[in-house]
Amino acid sequence: MAAPKGFSAPVSAEDRLIARYFRPLATHPGAFGLIDDAAALTPPAGCDLVLKTDAIVGGVHFFPDDPPDTIAQKALRVNLSDLAAKGAQPAGFLLSLMLPEGIDDGWLEAFARGLKADADTYGCPLFGGDTDRTPGPVTISIAAFGTVPQGTMVRRAGARAGDKIVVSGSIGDAALGLLLRRDPGAAERWRLAPPEGEHLVSRYLLPQPRNELAGALRRHASAAMDVSDGLVGDLNKLCAASDAAARIEAAHVPLSDAARTALAAEPALIETILTGGDDYEIVAAVPARAVAELQAQASAAGVTFTVIGDVVVGPTHAEFFTREGKPLLFKTTSFSHF
Questions:
Q1: Number of domain units in the chain
Q2: Distance CA 286, CA 215 (A)
C-alpha cells in the first residue's frame, strides 16, 4: 500500500543510531549505505575470500572502563590478526553490537570514531551487521573477510620436519599487561619503570595485527596462525593440524625490554608469558632456506621475525626447553573460555 502524499515513515531509534554512527564506515558501494538487509562483495578476479569471526565481551576480553575507541579497535584488530596469519588482505567486515542500558551517545561516538580510524587505516570498510540490547555486558562480534590469490591461503596444516618455527614481534606483553591491570602493585614488584608498565598495559589494551606481513607469509610460510590464546597452546594446534612436532628453545622466544625486566624479578612469570595469550603475533613454520628472505621482508615492514625452534618428527605437539635442555612443564598450555 502506497503511503499518503507527504507521509514520511517514522525512523526508529535503532535506524538513527546506525545512520549516525555506522553509516560513515560503510564506504564500499556494496554496503549500499547500510539501508538494505544485506551487502554484496565481488572478490577480485582470481582471488579467494578468507572468512573469520571473533567476538569480545566486556569483563572477559576488556575492562568495562576501557576507552570505547580502543574497545572498538581491539574488536576489529583481533579479526585482522587472523586474516594476516592466513596471508589475506582485509576487504571488509560485519559488526554485531550488543549494548546494555547505560550506554550513551558519548560512548557510541567514541566507539564509532575508533572503529572508523581502523577501518580507514587497514582498508577494511563496514558492510553491515546488527545492533541489539542485552542485559549483560557490552558484546561485540565482528565477522571479517579478506582476499588471497586463489589457492594461496596459509593454513595451520603444512609444517614439515626441517622447517624453522618463527614468531613475529614479542611474546607475553599483553598477558603481563592484564596482570598489571588487575594488580597495579605488580609494577613495583617487577621493578618496572613507568614507561615499561605503560607498554605492557597498552599491548593488552590494543593489539597490533601484523597485516603488513601477509604477502611475505603467503610466499614463504608452510603453515601459520596468529597467537591469541598463548604461544604454547597455539603452536600445539599448528602441530596437530600439521601432524608434526616442534622443539622450541624458550630462551629464543622474543621478549620486550619490559617483559625481560618483569621476568628477571619474577622468573615464574615465564609460564604467563608463554601461555597467557592476547599477543596477536604470528607463529609460522618456514622452510630453512626461506627464513632469511622472510626476515628481510618483515624487517622492511618494521617487524621482526625470530627463529625459536624447529619442526621435528614426533608426537603432534610442541616441547619447550630451557638453555640447559630441560623440558618446561606448564599447568595449562593456553587460555580457554571453557
A1: 2
A2: 14
